[in-house]
């Protein structure tokens, strides 16, 4: 599949007349718990020739290219990327730290990662993960029977909130790194690890009775972070001057 992905990325560059500066895997494969039939979700950052950005007419700042049922490829233009970086966009921050990289311009990604560490907006990050967890909890886990994989749709963002609160850093992409948090009990870790093993084996769609101890943990954390995030200072964003300088330095002549 990696060869197919590389070929697709090269074809996009040729057809769209752009440079792909960075391409990674996102979703369950990047998180470290794909199932046997998980899709490949490829995400990339690209730049176009300088004159493209000088056109009077508005042009799309992203590309969505479904290749097949198993392969989905989406990309963000450099200008869109930097605007989202200024807002500490969680999806972008996860791209920048994905463990599965398909291609990269080493200097570009090193500079972009360094820029991303400036003025990390903890409030915005927690709001994002909290909203994700709350929505998935309401939709999937407030039932007598649930599917295994739905627990991870709530667990991962809840653990991400805990990581931000504990370390004041962006949370790691790999799910198992989140399990190193100091406040997770041995009993809870056993439950999570058992579910994780079953998901990887392909049991993710099995319906079964909800797990009271896990649901209680999630409900307590959702309640806590709903209040906690209200008291956080939004903090300053990355300055527009820095973002503009970065943008101009990486425009293709």
Automatic annotation (TrEMBL):
Signal peptide: none annotated. It holds the Pfam family RlaP. Coiled coil: none annotated. Transmembrane segments: none annotated. It comes from the Bacteria. PANTHER family: NUCLEOTIDYLTRANSFERASE. This is Nucleotidyltransferase domain-containing protein. It comes from Candidatus Enterococcus ferrettii.
């Amino acid at each position: 599949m990696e060869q197919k992905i590389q070929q697709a990325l090269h074809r996009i560059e040729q057809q769209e007349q752009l440079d792909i500066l960075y391409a990674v895997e996102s979703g369950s494969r990047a998180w470290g718990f794909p199932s046997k039939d998980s899709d490949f979700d490829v995400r990339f950052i690209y730049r176009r020739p300088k004159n493209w950005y000088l056109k009077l007419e508005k042009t799309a700042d992203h590309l969505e290219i479904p290749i097949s049922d198993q392969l989905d490829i989406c990309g963000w233009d450099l200008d869109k990327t930097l605007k989202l970086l200024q807002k500490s966009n969680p999806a972008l921050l996860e791209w920048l730290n994905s463990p599965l990289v398909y291609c990269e311009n080493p200097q570009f990604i090193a500079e972009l990662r360094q820029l991303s560490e400036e003025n990390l907006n903890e409030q915005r990050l927690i709001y994002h993960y909290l909203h994700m967890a709350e929505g998935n909890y309401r939709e999937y886990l407030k039932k007598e029977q649930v599917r295994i994989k739905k627990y991870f749709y709530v667990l991962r963002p809840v653990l991400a909130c805990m990581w931000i609160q504990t370390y004041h850093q962006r949370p790691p992409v790999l799910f198992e790194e989140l399990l190193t948090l100091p406040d997770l009990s041995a009993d809870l870790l056993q439950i999570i690890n058992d579910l994780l093993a079953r998901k990887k084996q392909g049991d993710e769609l099995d319906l079964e009775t909800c797990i009271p101890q896990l649901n209680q943990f999630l409900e307590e954390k959702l309640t806590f972070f709903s209040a906690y995030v209200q008291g956080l200072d939004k903090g300053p964003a990355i300055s527009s001057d820095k973002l503009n300088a970065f943008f101009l330095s990486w425009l293709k002549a």
